[in-house]
Amino acid sequence: MITLYGMSSSGNCYKLQLACAQLGIAHVWEEIDITRGEQLSPEFLAMNDRGKVPVLKLGDGRTLAESNAILHYLAEGSELLPADRWTRAKTLQWMFFEQYSHEPCIAVSRFIHKYLAADHPRRASLPALKASGEEALAAMERHLHRLPWFGGECYTIADIALFAYTHVAEEGGFDLGGFPQVERWLKRVAQTPGFVPMRDAGA
User: Fold this and answer.
1) E strands present in the chain
2) Could you read off the pLDDT of 135-192 as tens digits, one per residue?
3) What percent of the chain has pLDDT over 90?
């Protein structure tokens, strides 16, 4: 039995809940409230030196951090991680895009809007984050004009990775109305077998 440590209202952690549901992977979920600094406890830091969620812990005690690395591990041997060399590389391309060009803008904007006070200094970064986030959404929109999924013709962990924060992008101040292909894709993801919505831990 594997254990996943994360915060349910985090998109990076939700990726793993969705993947486990769709792959039928039994697991124990341990809720970690980052707003209370629980990820900085000595016990958690022993699993991930960076003090970040999520973390996967195997039955033999080995641990793995970084949401997309965990997604890759969980999906190995399944249809969510293509066996074809090219399709797998395209899947990874969009997962790298998600962590480099998408999550740092859209997820961070959501965090600031959702968790920080109205007078917090980090709110000064919101205009720049919005501009960069809209560039990422525009790139997704262009891709989805050509192909239905981010791995190509099939639903993959690239779609799970990008869905996690895109479907709550409006909580970060983004208007998805200008990205109709993205909106259609979000609906397609929500209709995939085994889909589960994000759980809000109440934080």
Assistant:
1) 2-6, 27-31, 55-57, 63-65
2) 999 999 999 999 999 999 999 999 999 999 999 999 999 999 999 999 999 999 999 9
3) 97
Return left, alpha or beta for 152; rule: phi > 0 is left, psi -120 to 50 is alpha, else beta: left
**Could you tell me which residues come within 8 angstroms of residue 121 by beta carbon, excluding any fewer than 6 positions away?**
none
- Domain assignments of the chain as residue spans, ordered by start: 2-75, 85-190
Instruction: Say which amino acid occupies 186.
Output: L
| Ranges of the chain whose pLDDT falls below 50 | 201-203
CB-neighbour burial class of residue 126 (10 A; exposed 0-12, middle 13-18, buried 19+)? middle
CATH number for the domain running over 85-190: 1.20.1050.10
Question: Which H or E run contains 30?
Answer: strand 27-31
Q: What is the pLDDT of residue 25?
A: 98
Q: What is the pLDDT of residue 202?
A: 37
Q: In this predicted structure, what is the pLDDT of residue 200?
A: 73
Q: How far apart are CA 164 and CA 173, in angstroms?
A: 16
Q: Are the C-beta atoms of residues 1 and 27 closer than 8 Å to each other?
A: yes
Contact 101, 178 (CB under 8 A): no
Candidates 3.40.47.10, 3.40.50.10070, 3.40.30.10, 3.80.10.10; CATH matching 2-75:
3.40.30.10
Bridge-based pairing of strands 2-6 and 27-31 is parallel
